[in-house]
Write a structure and sequence with these properties.
Strand content: 15-25%
Number of helices: 4
CATH architecture of the largest domain: 3-Layer(aba) Sandwich
Strand order of the largest sheet: 5-2-6-7-1-8
Mean pLDDT: 87
Low-confidence stretches: 190-207
Helix content: 10-25%
Number of domains: 2
Bound molecules: adenosine-5'-diphosphate, zinc ion
CATH class of the largest domain: Alpha Beta
Radius of gyration: 17 Å
Length: 207
């Protein structure tokens, strides 16, 4: 990864994986290095995510870095003018405009780093992250440890179907699981989620 100061050409970096896979740690690591290099950094997270207070991005391992709350991706543009490096956490909650906004910022010569879930708790692609992955220059996929068998885990297990895709955090509600140990809550299957398990989710066709 080229971490030199952005000059004429910006770019988009995306960090994706399930919950607990270290996306936020990796985002904070990259942003701290940019700050140490005295680059101007602006950091954003969706206002839906106020788990650990409104003014910081915080990892599950308690790393933290100050950030600004935005309701949608478009709101980032108003605060990005001076920045050379833009950090965005929980990109899956920032709405369908996120790829366009990231493109606009990268076209202005900025380094744009976005972390987010690539799959929802059913193992299905979580918009708009697939669209963002398609236009990114650099992609990092992080894996967690499966809480059932200890293998590398690419999926997020949800223990209850309540709240759909956008229940944030929730102690005990989510767990990292591998492909073999991951299941979709029964309520969800009964609820007519045609693409959910046991039918093969689209993501499996990529492999
Ligand atoms: P993410 O942003 O992907 O949810 P974080 O960066 O917030 O991940 O947290 C990663 C940290 O979570 C790990 O360094 C570890 O301390 C902790 N952790 C808790 N459960 C797991 C797990 N099942 N696998 C890996 N790390 C875990
Ligand atoms: Zn497993």
């Amino acid at each position: 990864m080229n971490e030199t100061r952005p000059t004429k050409s910006g770019w988009i970096e995306v960090v994706v994986g399930p919950m607990y896979s270290g996306k936020t740690e990796e985002l904070i690591r990259r942003l701290r290095r940019a700050q140490i290099a005295r680059q101007r950094v602006e950091i954003f997270k969706p206002s839906i995510d106020v788990r650990y207070g409104a003014d910081h991005i915080v990892s599950h391992s308690e790393l933290r870095i100050p950030s600004r709350l935005v309701p949608t991706a478009t709101d980032i543009l108003a605060h990005a003018d001076e920045a050379e490096v833009i950090g965005i956490d929980e990109g899956q909650f920032l709405g369908p405009e996120l790829p366009r906004v990231a493109n606009t910022l990268a076209d202005q010569g900025k380094r744009v780093i976005v972390a987010g879930l690539d799959q929802d708790y059913r193992g299905l692609p979580f918009e708009p992250m697939p669209q963002l992955l398609a236009i990114a220059e650099y992609i990092t996929k992080t894996l967690a440890i499966c809480m059932v068998c200890g293998e590398p885990a690419g999926r997020t297990q949800k223990h209850r179907a309540e709240g759909g895709r956008v229940v944030v955090g929730g102690a005990g509600l989510y767990e990292a699981r591998c492909r073999r140990c991951h299941t979709v809550p029964v309520e969800d299957r009964a609820g007519g989620q045609a693409q959910a398990k046991p039918a093969a989710p689209p993501v499996q066709e990529i492999a």
